[in-house]
Amino acid sequence: MDIQPTTHPPSSADDIVIRAARLTDCEGIAALGNMPGYRWGTLRLPHQTPEATRKWLEGINPASNVSLVVERDGQIIGSGGFERHQGRRSHVAYLGMGLHDDFHGRGIGSRLLRELIMIADDWLNLRRIELTVYVDNVAAIALYKRNGFEIEGTHRDFAFRGGAFADAYAMARIKP
């Protein structure tokens, strides 16, 4: 039997490179987490330190987690990854991603998400990818839907953000 590799869009295109996160990226990743728009779509608190980010990067288990960054001209402008569950949920991973406030609407998030899906499908044989997204994050919801994610439910009062409780959708993609 002749097995042909599946072709995917390259991980770098135009002026960006998508690559594995390194410990030396802690400054850039922390700077992303401190951007108002980036933070608004996450569970991060204001004033993330590079030291806390480095500690988080050091704790990543490469056997079950994937952590990528998007780089442009030496600057980290995006990050994303997933954490694989264990045991009877080892076919599932939880995904998170975000972009620099100034780089939305350029297709960069699409490229990052496609790279993560390719790793999940073609390298880790993950069957299900889960995520949560705030219900007011219309652009992210549209991105996830375009890539096969479906809304499975609503988490009411999911998180306290900006002085009020916010709802979030539970979304998932089942490998076709």
Automatic annotation (TrEMBL):
CDD domains: NAT_SF. One of its GO terms (molecular function) is acyltransferase activity, transferring groups other than amino-acyl groups. It is an enzyme of class 2 (transferase). Residues 16-176 form the N-acetyltransferase domain. Keywords: Acyltransferase, Transferase. Gene3D superfamilies: 3.40.630.30. The keyword Magnesium does not apply. Its EC number is 2.3.1.-. It comes from the Bacteria. Belongs to the acetyltransferase family. RimJ subfamily. This is Putative acetyltransferase. It comes from Microvirga lupini.
